[in-house]
């Protein structure tokens, strides 16, 4: 015991050493090393992130549309800086929303009748058909917008000749007394006067027509306008989709006609130097709307004009890379105009001003001699004219079209493509006259709508 007492400390330390050696094999020390290593690496990662945050180059929010370069933020983004940035972004978002609503208002078009869409009842269909026929018959709607007519017809010239003959007879013929008939000498004078006037009657009628109108618009040149299935005796066969398609055609033609009317009011020439502008066919920059027809890019050219062909929405990317999407539908068409050669650049600019309309391509078909056209009955004035084709693209925002969209179109709202319709076939159908007797206006919807 004495030995133990004298060496107690040494014995205790020896026991501790032995326990330590045993613990290395019994206690899970290697697991503690692994845990410690994992924690150390995570702390290093956090440290690197903190160091990166301290050294990172920070930028201000992008608040301008004329650049994609963000200005550097030269101070640390504390709470006040972050709040200021968020406020700026909120103000920008609100301003953008206000601008979008202005765009929607500018893009919105009126229905022919208030209750025709989206789910018309029988009376609504009848009202629409009645208004449609009244507006489109004889192109009354668009001739009013354009202040347009066709050239004088043969019947009108014949009537003018008869009126001239009656006026000359009234002036020169002398009735003999006692029922003796017409004095032969007065008859000869009247006949000679009429013979002198006759060659100029047709020309005078044509000149008068040109002075009464702003441009020419003949029959059967606007596509998708037909009363075969839109009439008051066939409303049972009218579907909401048919009404929507024909209404879309009307909107597109309206926009083209308003563009032409604005051009003629803005850029017409004066009748005499220094005088006020006169927007008649002799002095207006756009002399004639010759045709408006769908355009099929996949077909490689212009669809053949036919009154039974409806305008179509376009799904494949166009030259502008626009496609029907969740924000808007794309409608493409081609128009042919007779334009004052000098005013063509102004016409192109005016066509696109304050409209969701893009003139994608301009092709000069031919130079037109006004003298040659006068022989055909058209009076374009004395300046050289061009026959030009515009390939156009127009956008219709969903913000206002979706609420009036028929239920049959709503399952595909916002789709870029269309899983139900073959686009090639639809474009081919749009470029080919309908020979089946079916609905010429119920064109397949190519934007998934």
Layout of strands and helices, then pairs:
Elements: H1 2-6, H2 8-26, H3 29-55, E1 58-59, E2 72-73, H4 79-107, H5 122-136, H6 140-146, E3 148-149, H7 154-172, H8 184-212, E4 215-217, H9 240-267, E5 286-296, E6 301-302, E7 312-313, E8 328-340, H10 344-352, E9 357-368, H11 370-375, E10 385-397, H12 398-401, H13 423-430
Parallel strand pairs: 3-4, 4-5
Antiparallel strand pairs: 1-2, 5-6, 5-8, 7-8, 8-10, 9-10
| Radius of gyration, in angstroms, nearest whole number | 40 Å
Give the termini separation: 104 Å
- Structural class by secondary-structure content: alpha+beta
Number of distinct helices:
13
What is the arithmetic mean of pLDDT?
83
Strand coverage percent = 5-15%
Q: Percent of residues in helical segments?
A: 40-55%
H/E order of the elements?
Answer: HHHEEHHHEHHEHEEEEHEHEHH
How many strands, which pairing sense, and closed or not: the largest β-sheet? 8 strands, mixed
Instruction: Please report the total strand number as a whole number.
Output: 10
Give the overall form.
elongated
Unreliable stretches:
296-310, 414-449
Can you walk me through this structure?
The protein has helices at 2-6, 8-26, 29-55, 79-107, 122-136, 140-146, 154-172, 184-212, 240-267, 344-352, 370-375, 398-401, 423-430, and strands at residues 58-59, 72-73, 148-149, 215-217, 286-296, 301-302, 312-313, 328-340, 357-368, 385-397. The model is unreliable at 296-310 and 414-449 (pLDDT under 50). It is an alpha+beta fold. The strands form two sheets. Strands 3, 4, 5, 6, 7, 8, 9 and 10 form an eight-stranded mixed β-sheet that branches. Strands 1-2 form a two-stranded antiparallel sheet.
């Amino acid at each position: 015991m004495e030995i133990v007492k004298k060496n107690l400390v040494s014995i205790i330390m020896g026991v501790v050493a032995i326990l330590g050696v045993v613990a290395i094999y019994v206690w899970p020390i290697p697991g503690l090393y692994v845990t410690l290593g994992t924690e150390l690496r995570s702390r290093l990662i956090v440290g690197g992130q903190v160091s990166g945050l301290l050294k990172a180059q920070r930028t201000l929010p992008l608040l301008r549309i004329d650049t994609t370069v963000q200005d550097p933020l030269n101070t640390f983004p504390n709470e006040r800086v972050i709040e200021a940035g968020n406020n700026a972004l909120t103000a920008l978002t609100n301003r953008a929303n206000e601008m979008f609503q202005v765009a929607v208002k500018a893009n919105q078009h009126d229905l022919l009748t208030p209750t025709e869409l989206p789910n018309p009842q029988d009376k609504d269909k009848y009202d629409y058909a009645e208004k449609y026929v009244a507006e489109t018959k004889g192109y009354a709607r668009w001739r009013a917008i354009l202040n347009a007519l066709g050239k004088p017809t043969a019947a009108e010239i014949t009537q003018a000749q008869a009126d001239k003959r009656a006026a000359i007879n009234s002036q020169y013929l002398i009735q003999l007394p006692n029922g003796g008939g017409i004095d032969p000498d007065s008859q000869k004078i009247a006949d000679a006067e009429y013979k002198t006037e006759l060659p100029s009657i047709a020309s005078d009628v044509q000149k008068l027509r040109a002075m009464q109108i702003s441009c020419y618009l003949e029959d059967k040149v606007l596509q998708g306008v037909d009363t075969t299935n839109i009439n008051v005796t066939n409303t049972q066969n009218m579907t909401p989709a048919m009404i929507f398609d024909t209404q879309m055609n009307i909107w597109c033609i309206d926009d083209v006609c308003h563009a032409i009317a604005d051009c003629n009011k803005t850029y017409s020439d004066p009748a005499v130097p220094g005088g006020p502008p006169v927007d008649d066919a002799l002095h207006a920059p756009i002399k004639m709307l010759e045709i408006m027809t769908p355009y099929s890019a996949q077909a490689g050219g212009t669809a053949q004009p036919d009154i039974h062909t409806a305008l179509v929405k376009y799904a494949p990317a166009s030259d502008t890379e626009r496609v029907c999407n969740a924000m808007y539908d794309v409608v493409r068409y081609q128009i042919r105009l007779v334009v004052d050669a000098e005013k063509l650049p102004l016409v192109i600019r005016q066509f696109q001003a304050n409209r969701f309309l893009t003139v994608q391509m301009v092709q000069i078909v031919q130079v037109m001699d006004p003298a040659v056209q006068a022989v055909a009955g058209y009076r374009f004035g004395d300046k050289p004219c061009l026959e030009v084709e515009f390939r156009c693209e127009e956008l219709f925002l969903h913000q206002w079209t979706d609420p009036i969209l028929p239920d049959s179109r709503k399952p595909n709202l916002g789709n870029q493509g269309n899983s139900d319709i073959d686009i090639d076939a639809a474009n081919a159908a749009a470029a080919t006259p309908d020979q089946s007797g079916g609905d010429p206006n119920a064109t397949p919807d190519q934007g998934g709508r």
